[in-house]
Design brief:
- The chain is α/β, with parallel strands linked by helices.
- It has two domains: 96 residues, Methyltransferase, Methionine Synthase (B12-binding Domains), Chain A, domain 1 (Orthogonal Bundle); 118 residues, Cobalamin-binding domain (Rossmann fold).
- The protein is globular and about 55 Å long.
- The model has no long low-confidence stretch (mean pLDDT 94).
- The structure holds CO-5-methoxybenzimidazolylcobamide (B1M).
- CO-5-methoxybenzimidazolylcobamide binds next to helix 3, helix 4, helix 5, strand 3 and strand 4.
């Protein structure tokens, strides 16, 4: 199998939720290699982890999102796609985390309250860690109190907030407001598909990062 064919097959596994070879779902792909086996094969073939991530995994997730918007699939299918993507990401993790050993600083990250999407947040955490930062991952559905406790314990940390739903953007605004009221000097960056720089400026966050790489650039600039 060539590189392109392999990436295409991997994208299909994520799109249709084929986690691994033994997974019974989807029935049409029974007995075939899944995201688990194909990611391993792609790495063995020497395909770059960033290529696997962008050209197969994120590409597939975008298709899943489109189909969900068009009501062609529903939450269970999105969930099984997320499972396939997470399985693939487990293989990519060591590559993204093998950055410099010396820590540049601390980065607290969480998905804001009401929001359970964590694939993008995990990716940012992984890549920031790989870029030499100590990452404190608070998980999903994180309220202002949890962020503030973590900041109290790590006063020099930079804080990242992720939101994937337009309905949780107001929670992000509330959390930023509460953190800034108690810790005005803490640097806060926001990210996630529905937010942008205009929203950042509206809610008083310090930085907006559309992707993990720009989050790393923002963080590194702070310690340069
Ligand atoms: Co949800 N979901 N979902 N979902 N889901 C979206 C976000 C949606 C756009 C789908 C759609 O309609 N097209 C839509 C939101 C619409 C809107 O808000 N206007 C949506 C919806 C509606 C919902 C539910 C409400 C559905 C329902 O129940 N009726 C529900 C809400 C649950 C909740 O959170 N309370 C829901 C549930 C779920 C699942 C649980 C099934 C699953 C999540 C599983 C998981 O995360 N463990 C899921 C999934 C998988 C998606 C889609 C298909 C994929 C999201 C994803 O992982 N993308 C998504 C459609 C889409 O995005 N195309 C969708 C891949 C990921 C790498 O990208 O997260 O954008 P992303 O992260 C990027 C950047 O945004 C950025 O870097 C990442 C890498 O480039 N980034 C940051 C993210 N955070 C950052 C932080 C930073 C910097 C950069 O600094 C701090």
């Amino acid at each position: 199998m060539g590189q392109n064919e392999l990436l295409q097959k991997l994208a299909e596994c994520v799109e249709f939720g084929k986690v691994n070879k033994t997974a019974p779902y989807p029935p049409a792909m029974k007995g075939q290699d899944g995201a688990d086996e194909l990611t391993r094969q792609a790495l063995e073939m020497g395909i770059k982890p960033s290529e696997i991530l962008n050209d197969a995994l994120i590409f597939a997730m975008d298709k899943v999102g489109e189909k969900f918007s068009q009501k062609k699939i529903f939450v269970p299918q999105m969930l099984i796609s997320a499972k396939a993507m997470n399985t693939a990401m487990e293989h990519l993790k060591p590559y993204f985390q093998s950055g410099e050993v010396k820590r540049k600083g601390k980065f607290i990250i969480g998905t804001v309250s009401g929001d359970l999407h964590d694939i993008g947040k995990n990716l940012v955490a992984m890549i920031v860690e790989g870029a030499g930062w100590e990452v404190i991952d608070l998980g999903v559905d994180v309220d202002a109190g949890k962020f503030k406790t973590a900041i109290g314990e790590n006063p020099d940390a930079v804080v990242g907030l992720s939101a994937l739903l337009t309905t949780t953007m107001p929670n992000m605004q509330k959390i930023v407001g509460e953190i800034k009221a108690q810790y005005p000097n803490v640097k806060l960056i926001i990210g996630g598909a529905p937010v942008n720089d205009e929203f950042r400026s509206e809610i008083g966050a310090d930085g907006y990062s559309p992707d993990p790489q720009s989050a790393v650039a923002y963080l590194n600039a702070l310690v340069a």
